[in-house]
Specification:
By secondary structure, this protein is an alpha/beta fold. It contains eleven helices and ten strands. The protein has a domain of 200 residues: Alpha/Beta hydrolase fold, catalytic domain (Rossmann fold). The longest helix has 16 residues.
Length: 295
């Protein structure tokens, strides 16, 4: 009797699109006839950080995961423009060009902040939204930030940009050194997860060393932004079911506890024990179960 052989499903294919003259990268996990699902990563991360989530959901969804500008395999803007408006425009362009609306979005951290803004701007374009720690700084952090004057905030931004302009990307002698740095960043990661994220998140330099793919300038937040009141108005415009995910061991503030949930009309909070900022890595199985139930 001949044994049946299970052929593993192929990985994602790479594609590009243009936004503000930048060539931006995304991966497509196939199943184009299924409902579209966007996975949007966070700061200093890359699209392949979603591989475990994408591999599970691709059977029922057409999964697309972009690299944000300055991250992964997307181009770096020559002027170092990493303002929130630019990120939101890039997401809007991807959804517009690929005819994804109404789209379902799962997004993490910076990606969650971008997705929440986009959904508030275009509520009819999003079917459902999962934002993992995507609300940005807590009310306490915002209050502390505005103890300084606009001039002081702008001065700090200019000084930080100048420092980065003279800074070379950090180089690791071996991929193992980069792997160990990845493990230091998130102690919840298994060795397999950390290695996967490192391999897809680093490039080898001409001298044989390794550097992270992201542009160092993404570390500096632009001081020009929507006011907190304006951001809360966008949150209030969101009409689709929204799941705000938080890790109990994260530095981020839980909106159920800090009061920000009151600005949403269709959102609820899911908090995960034993998880930090990267809930989808730290508690993958539990996160996927909750997401599947929500979707």
């Amino acid at each position: 009797m001949t044994e049946s052989i299970t052929v593993p499903m192929p990985g994602p294919t790479s594609h590009s699109y243009f936004s503000q003259r930048l060539r931006l990268h995304y991966v497509d996990w196939g199943n184009a006839g299924a409902p579209p699902l966007l996975l949007v990563h966070g700061g200093r991360d890359h699209c392949r950080n979603w591989d475990w989530v994408a591999a599970d959901l691709r059977k029922d969804w057409h999964v697309i995961a972009p690299d944000l500008r300055g991250h992964g395999d997307s181009e770096w803007p020559s002027d170092g423009n990493y303002g929130m408006a630019a990120y939101v425009y890039d997401l809007a362009q991807l959804i517009h060009q690929q005819h994804l609306a109404p789209v379902t979005i799962i997004a993490h951290s910076l990606g969650g902040n971008i997705a929440l803004r986009y959904t508030g701007i275009y509520p009819e374009m999003v079917r459902k939204l999962v934002a993992i720690e995507g609300l940005g700084p807590s009310p306490k952090m915002i209050a502390e930030r505005f103890l300084t004057s606009p001039a002081e905030r702008m001065q700090k931004w200019i000084e930080d940009r100048r420092k980065l302009a003279g800074r070379m990307p950090r180089r690791y002698a071996t991929i193992e050194d980069a792997f160990r740095r990845m493990q230091e960043e998130n102690a919840h990661l298994s060795p397999e997860q950390a290695r996967h994220l490192t391999v897809h998140g680093a490039n080898q330099n001409e001298d044989g060393t390794y550097s992270w793919k992201f542009d160092s300038h993404v570390r500096v937040n632009t001081p020009e932004n929507l006011s907190q009141a304006e951001l809360e108005q966008l949150w209030a415009r969101i009409t689709c079911p929204t799941l705000l995910v938080y890790g109990r061991e994260s530095w981020a503030s839980n909106p159920q506890e800090d009061g920000r949930i009151k600005h949403f009309t269709t959102a609820r909070v899911a908090a995960f024990e034993g998880a930090g900022h990267w809930v989808h890595h730290d508690k993958t199985a539990e996160f996927l179960a909750a997401v599947r139930d929500f979707l």
